[in-house]
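Continuing from the previous page...

OK, I double-checked the sequence for HTH domain protein against my notes and this is the correct one:
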Amino acid sequence: MKRAERLHALSEMLRRSGTRGCSAERLASEFGVSVRTVKRDLTALENSGAPVWSRPGPGGGYGLAARASLPPVSLSPAQAVALMAAVSAASDAPYADLASAGIQKILDVLDPRTRARADELAGRVWVNALPASPRTVRSALEEAMAEQRVVRIRYTAADGTTTSRDVEPVLFASTNGRWYLVGWCRLRDAMRWFTVARIERASVTKAACTGHTVEEVGEPPVNARPVHGRGA
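Thanks. Re-ran it with the corrected sequence; updated structure tokens here:
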């Protein structure tokens, strides 16, 4: 097992051990290394920002502080390129800029060999992304959604009619290659789907949303599903 893999496995074992902790001897036996090596690995984890605690004496050991975040997980070159491709292909998606910045942070901490292999593989993946809506519009929509505040938009419908509306954002939805802001329209007093590309201006107001829920939107489009941080 490579050291990077061992460090990740070590942090996972400490996390699973909870408040009981694990002795250095048990950790050494688990990974087939010396106690001295385990203690060096624990020091490396702590230096990387992992909240490692130690308890001396009989029954003591090592563990991770509860509810604390773990150090970043190393990616394979293919995993790194998969993330880059997904964000590049969806440059008009909500929070795409933040996703791109997050991926860059991950790439910056990859070991040089993995980064070089990822860069080489990335050159073999081409993306023809659709033009994104203005950054100022998307920023306002993203802030309004995250903070659950009313957003004021200037919107041009498919028939060419332009209106100014106050909307309580409920969700973002992608269907048939287009992104929509779905929310409670105070002008129409009803739930409405607004094509993001047709929103000419947007500004976040100080008014809080009144609590309209995703369930009020109705059934999602065919094959649509929420974006979760877990496998589908």
